[in-house]
Amino acid sequence: MARRTFFSFHYKPDVWRAWNVRNCWVVKPEEQVDSGFFDSSVFEASKKESEDNLKTFLRNGLKNTSVTCVLTGAETSTRRWVRYEIVQSVLKGNGLLTVDIHKVKNKDSQTSTKGVDPLACIGLYKTENGIYFAEKNGDKWIKYSDYTRPIPESDLWFDAPTSNQVVALSKHYERYDFIAQNGRENIAGWIELAAALTGRR
Question: What angle do CA 61, 9, 93 make, to 5 degrees?
Answer without folding.
Answer: 50
